[in-house]
Amino acid sequence: MSELLDPTNDYVFKRLFAEAPDLLVDLINDLRPDLPNITSVEILNPNIEPTDLTGKYIILDVLARDGDGHCYNVEVQVRRYGAWHKRGLFYLARTLGTQLGAGEDYQELRASVGLHLLDFDLFTDTAGEREQAVWRFEMRDERQPGVTLGNILQMNLIELNKADRLGLPEGPLRAWITFFKHWQEELTMANVAHEPVKKAMSRIRELSADEETRRLAFVRERALRDEVSLLNDAKREEAQRILQRLLTKRFGDLPEWVIQRLDAANAQQLEGWTDEILVANTLEELFKH
């Protein structure tokens, strides 16, 4: 048996749920229990274009609408970048704004619900933030949070790593967390009794047995790694450019050996030299290590 594909690979995630609407229904019901259970969904963006696998900042989300017209944007996010939450809010608001046709009453407006599974820790600044992994954001008053405009526009965030560390109470949500973090651990998954997660494991096995699916999943994973590498290279080049400008202002024209040291340095070294530039009296002193 081939190694199982990672369900947090967004290509695999979309194949897993967009091709099995009944499984997506189970996932939605388990992740947003404050809304009435749904029984079926229509997948609004089932196709995956070849450019989706390599495009910059492409998100392979799953858009769905239930029988009552409520819309759902379901996605997994494996890396954190500066504007990801703004992108999520933008598309969630756009989903809400495109529901009504000309002449339709506002009473017909249905919920737009974002369900984002984050494979990284997002909120870590305070002890309270570090002890919470499941978040729901709605339109509420700042001073009286009990006063709300309703849950018609709602974004749910689940920090997978944190939720796994904290150990959520037994139930459907914990079963899904176990699936997304421990899908490769046969003994762990054998102890999960939640039927939808069992179905998800069967789907992962089916997808993993298909060579073309494995190839495309690798293409997507490689594209994400390349994107991260390009971003890191850009940050390093910017750090070198800033340091070189500061050195020139402090010490005048730079000798060739300094330029060579800067060209060969990694981001951590560049950061260290930048921190020491104001206390070093000579170039030799700054670059002694």
Note down, in words, how this protein is organized:
With 289 residues, the protein is α/β, with parallel strands linked by helices. The chain folds into two domains: 10-209, no CATH class; 236-286, no CATH class. It is 48% helix and 11% strand. It has helices at 10-18, 21-31, 84-97, 127-130, 160-166, 172-182, 186-190, 195-208, 211-251, 256-264, 267-276, 283-286; strands at residues 41-43, 62-66, 71-77, 112-118, 134-137, 153-159. The protein has a six-stranded mixed beta sheet with strand order 1-2-3-4-6-5, sandwiched between helices. Helix 5 crosses helix 6 (172-182) and helix 9 packs parallel to helix 11 (267-276). The radius of gyration is 24 Å and the shape is globular. The relative contact order is 0.12.
List strands and helices in order, with pairings.
Blueprint: H1 10-18, H2 21-31, E1 41-43, E2 62-66, E3 71-77, H3 84-97, E4 112-118, H4 127-130, E5 134-137, E6 153-159, H5 160-166, H6 172-182, H7 186-190, H8 195-208, H9 211-251, H10 256-264, H11 267-276, H12 283-286
Parallel strand pairs: 3-4, 4-6
Antiparallel strand pairs: 1-2, 2-3, 5-6
The count of DSSP E runs of length 2 or more, i.e. the number of strands, is: 6
Q: Calculate the terminal CA-CA distance, rounded to whole Å.
A: 50 Å
Give a short account of the largest sheet.
6 strands, mixed
What is the H/E order?
A: HHEEEHEHEEHHHHHHHH
The chain-level structural class is alpha/beta
Strand order, sheet with most strands: 1-2-3-4-6-5
**Using only CA atoms, what is the Rg?**
24 Å
Give the helix level as a range of percent: 40-55%
Mean pLDDT: 85
How many domains make up the coordinates? 2
Which oligomerization state do the chains in this entry correspond to?
single chain
Strand content: 5-15%
Instruction: Please tally the helical runs, counting DSSP H or I stretches of 4 or more residues.
Output: 12
How would you sum up the global shape? globular
Poorly predicted spans? none
